[in-house]
Request: fold
Amino acid sequence: MFIENTKVISNKKIAENTFLLEVDKENFDCNFLPGQFFNLQVSESSFPLLRRPFSISDVNETSFSFMYKVVGEGTKIISEKKSGEIINLLGPLGNSFEINNEYEHYFLLGGGIGIAPFPFLIKTFSENQNYSVLFGVRTKSESHTYGINNVSFSSDDGSIGFKGNTIQLLDKKLEEFKNKKVKVLACGPNPMFRALQKFVKEKEIDCDVSMESTMACGFGICQGCPIDYKGEESYKLICKDGPVFNIKDIII
Reply:
């Protein structure tokens, strides 16, 4: 874990209210894992006070990137940062998605900005590992294909791809994989996860999810991001024990 200032390389809009922030990697001599995140300092002033947790969206030789959606004052300020400006980052934090050869096909489910960790995750797949990306949006203007391929869209209004949600689209896609061992990796809002938890239990499908939460510290000191857990411990911390959990182990 590092806490370092780094330089903004670019900060560009890639879809409606969705931006890609690319920063210099020079000060972060460490391994990055898909599913991990950084806590970004919004500004040098005390407002907004809390950092913002962003998933690592992409990693290159000299830079790495965060995909984010403008939803409030903090992300609005970040969206206005220009090339050459300095931003303070804390990370990388948290655990990661695990990929192995046990499964014949992976389904990557992204609900809205939940698509953010998947460009980096896709880079870690070997040539013999098969996957599909299911990207759910409200409407076509929120869609993009940055860093993803083998993608099928769902939209609430039917303006792009399948009309419906990602879980309905997953149900349709699974018809092609009836005799194969598949696993779902998902990131998105809690209502999506509640429906997904019920769905994969009925279908007896393995599923890991990357949880979203407001975080003050990002590494477990403040105890501000608990999630109810089905085990000897009654709760886990999303920042320290996650953000990736097996969906059957948590209460959403």
